[in-house]
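Hi everyone,

Forwarding the result from last night's run.
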Amino acid sequence: SVQKQPGANTLELTREIDRTLEHTDQLNDAKILDLYQRYVVGALEKSLYAGRTELLEVLETVDNSVEGAATTTTKFDSRLGDFASSMDDNLDAQKVKEQVSSLQSDVSDVKGSMQVLRENLEAHRTEINRLTSELSQAREQARIDALSGLLNRRGFDDALEQSIEAFMSN
């Protein structure tokens, strides 16, 4: 999973705020910005980066599966071409049986390759859905202040933009 244990960042942030307040009576703007960068933005960036990396790995695996299937079908196409060119007016029954048996084996290879591709795509569809959900959660978290649970500046700007667009479309 991309995210840490739920609340871990909030707990660490709370502890650091408490330590800071033990030494001084207030948090200054520089300290608040530092805490925000380390505990809020930093965690979200890590989450987004990890999700992006996992998604790229999934895509690479799917690409390899597709490449394997393409190689198998190219081989089959070549065998079909060989079979067609070997056919002449003097058809030998044994030769035809051997060619057909070889083609059946190639068809079986293509079917197997397509089944592996289908299974990989299905497995990765589930993984992509999970990653999409995690990235969506990370985007939503980027809009909400971790301490207050209210929209932060980014969330406020997004909500304002949506309201303006809704107003303009009416």
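Confidence is low (pLDDT under 50) at residues 1-6.

Cheers,
N.
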